[in-house]
Amino acid sequence: MISKAFYDTAGKLEAVHALLIDYTANRFIEQKLIETNKHMHLLIEASDLGALDYDIDRDLNKVNQYTCDMVGVSLDFFDNSRHFWRGLIYPEDRADVEKRLH
Q1: Could you write out the DSSP letters of every residue in 14-51?
Q2: Taken in order 97, 100, 102, 73, is the CA torsion positive or negative?
Q3: pLDDT given at position 2
Q4: DSSP letter at 56?
Q5: What is the overall mean pLDDT for the chain?
Q6: Dihedral sign, CA of 55, 59, 64, 66?
Q7: Which of 36, 58, 40 is nearest to 49 (CA)?
Q8: Whole-structure pTM value
Q9: What is the CATH superfamily name and number for domain 49-102?
Q10: How many CB atoms lie within 10 A of CB 13?
Q11: For residue range 19-61, what is the model confidence (pLDDT) as tens digits?
Q12: How confident is the model at residue 15 (pLDDT cuts 50, 70, 90)?
């Protein structure tokens, strides 16, 4: 709830404007999303699948241990930038990969 009190020049309360917003539906959706993400995380980890999540706006990659194992990188020393991952491409293949990405 958002509210604002209005007073006259003598300091007497004249009015109160209030806005009540029901976030019940949003909370339900947020909870379902959290549950789905937890379930998906468990499935990926249990199945030994590599996972890479790329945040375009922040240019960040998130990976799991199995992805690092596949490319021979330690998760502890993982660099989450796209430049790091592009550096893992075999040099003779890099031009072709770059062309296919754009």
Answers
A1: EEEEEE----HHHHHHHHHHHHHHHHHHHHHHHTT---
A2: negative
A3: 84
A4: T
A5: 87
A6: positive
A7: 40
A8: 0.50
A9: PAS domain (3.30.450.20)
A10: 9
A11: 888 888 889 999 999 999 899 888 888 888 888 888 888 888 8
A12: very high
Rg (CA), the chain: 25
Mean pLDDT of 69-76: 86
Residue where the block lists tokens 């990976």 = 63
57's CB contacts (< 8 A; 6+ apart) are: none
CA distance 102 to 48: 30
Structure tokens at 2: 């958002």
Tell me the domain boundaries of the chain: 1-47, 49-102
Record the tokens describing residue 23, joined without a space: 């976030």
**What letter would DSSP give residue 83?**
H
CA-wise closest residue to 67 among 77, 55, 59, 75: 75
